[in-house]
Amino acid sequence: MFLYLKVHPKGKFVRDHLSLYLCVANPESFRFGWKRLASYSLILLNQVGKELYRSPRNPLIFLTL
Fold it and tell me: Known Gene3D superfamilies for this protein (predicted)?
């Protein structure tokens, strides 16, 4: 399974927000009923690598319909 991050710097549905989407590559290649649990967090760093923000770990279920 290959995951990638899709970034919309000016927002996708709301124009004054940064939108981030964790996506599965080629979801159509998986069988019906396929599902996986992914746990992720977001870390925001400044230019010198100092951590400015860390989101809580969020579990997310990917599935095919």
Answer: Apoptosis, Tumor Necrosis Factor Receptor Associated Protein 2, Chain A
